[in-house]
Amino acid sequence: MQILRVRFTTKATIIQVSAARGWYYKKCIACNMKVIGESSNLQCADHGPQPTANYGYCFRIIIDDGTTTATVTCFSPEAHTFVPECNEVVNAADNKDNRHLPEILKQLENKTYVFQYRFGKRARPGHPNFSLDVAFKPSAQSLLGLPAPQPATPPSQEILQQTSSNMPTETTKTNPCPLAEGSSHGLNTSSEAPKKTAKRELFAEKEGSDKKPRQE
Q1: Of 41, 66, 81, 191, whose CB has the highest number of CB atoms within 10 Å?
Q2: Does the global pTM surpass 0.70?
Q3: Measured distance CA(9)–CA(83) in Å, rounded
Q4: Rounded CA gap, 154 and 118, in Å?
Q5: Which residues 6+ apart lie within 8 Å of 142 measured at CB?
Q6: CATH topology of domain 2-135
Q7: Residue 176, SS3 per DSSP
């Protein structure tokens, strides 16, 4: 899908770290696929038995850039750009409950970073499902360090006068109802009634007739 190629970069503050769906999972040492089975018998569907437990992040963060909020899922190894490696955190945690957020992840809240993220594989309209690409601390040399916009300078009065003097002064009269003038379209709109023509005499006497008047 074309939508999966879209990338976003924003400077935002983490307002919440969530472990509602777990903050880590057991994954294959050769890929990021989730493994199944007990710790002594872990299996990857593609790479078979796993010699040791390997952990990866899957926690969520809600970020706010000042205009809107977004929920981004942080997987390993991308999450290692701003938090310690997942195996270290899991092995050091006293409570390894998948939904019990460790203190080191709680401390991310209210901190500001520059985030680059993308649409996840399950993204669909109404459910963007963002996934993290990288996160780093903002600095003067960050990707968002764009130059400040220059103030707009209005044109001088001399230029405005020259522009107005060069404007054409001739105006063209427009007839809003062109059909009202019949002469322009060859129409006869005269109010005079058409003249009547004399009827042709059907029995007119011929001139120089030889017929004489009757004598009594």
Answers
A1: 81
A2: no
A3: 19
A4: 41
A5: 11, 114, 136
A6: OB fold (Dihydrolipoamide Acetyltransferase, E2P) (2.40.50)
A7: coil
Helices (H), the chain: 86-92, 103-106, 157-165
Q: Cα(27)–Cα(79) distance, rounded to whole angstroms?
A: 15
Could you read off the pLDDT of 12-57 as tens digits, one per residue?
Answer: 999 999 999 999 999 999 888 999 988 778 999 999 998 888 999 9
Domain boundaries, the chain: 2-135
Q: Which residues pair with 112 in a beta bridge?
A: 13
DSSP string, 34-87: BPBS-TTS-EETTTEE-SS--EEEEEEEEEE-SS-EEEEEEETTGGGGTS--HH
Beta carbons of 21 and 75 less than 8 angstroms apart: no
* Residue-wise pLDDT tens digits, 184-212: 444 444 444 444 444 555 444 444 445 55
Q: Which two tokens stand for residue 171?
A: 């105006």
Top pLDDT among 84 and 165 is at 84
Q: Provide CB contacts within 8 A for 85, sequence distance 6+.
A: 76
| Residues ≥6 apart with Cβ < 8 Å to 50 | 28, 29, 35, 42, 43, 44
Length in residues, the chain: 216
